[in-house]
Design brief:
By secondary structure, the chain is α+β, with helices and mostly antiparallel strands. It has a single domain (about 1-120), classed as Sandwich (Jelly Rolls), CATH 2.60.120. It is built from four helices and seven strands, in the order βαβββββαβαα. Strands 1, 2, 3, 4, 5, 6 and 7 form a seven-stranded antiparallel β-sheet that branches. Helix 3 (about 95-105) crosses helix 4.
């Protein structure tokens, strides 16, 4: 499960934030359900998200984590439910935004996404 979850450096976070405005989520709000195919990747800017499988806690994500991107780009389902456990700000990266970044002149973001997506056979 953790091979598609990434802890990002601040410079990458700042660049990716410029492509997608953050949204605010309340405690106990589910942002994705186990077994569903995602329509976005998630960049957690503030707060905390609990990842569960079969209602059992598997991992707690803190600010700076990116997840769901490889599943989005490969059209495969998440193997966990993601639920906000502290008020959180999250950027959504949809497929068209990811493709825009890959074609942009933003070399830092492009190289990062290339490395993430190449590791996942996109």
């Amino acid at each position: 499960m953790t091979d598609t979850i990434f802890r990002l450096q601040p410079a990458i976070i700042e660049r990716l934030k410029s492509y997608a405005p953050p949204l605010l989520y309340s405690i106990d709000q589910a942002i994705h359900y186990e077994g569903h195919i995602p329509i976005v990747g998630y960049l957690l800017l503030e707060g905390q998200i609990k990842l569960t499988r079969n209602d059992r806690l598997k991992l707690v994500l803190e600010a700076g984590h990116l997840f769901g991107l490889a599943e989005l780009m490969n059209g495969i389902s998440f193997d966990f439910t993601a639920k906000v456990s502290k008020q959180s700000r999250i950027c959504y990266l949809d497929r068209s935004t990811v493709l825009e970044i890959m074609e942009s002149e933003d070399q830092l973001s492009r190289q990062f996404l290339d490395s993430v997506l190449c590791d996942q056979n996109v």
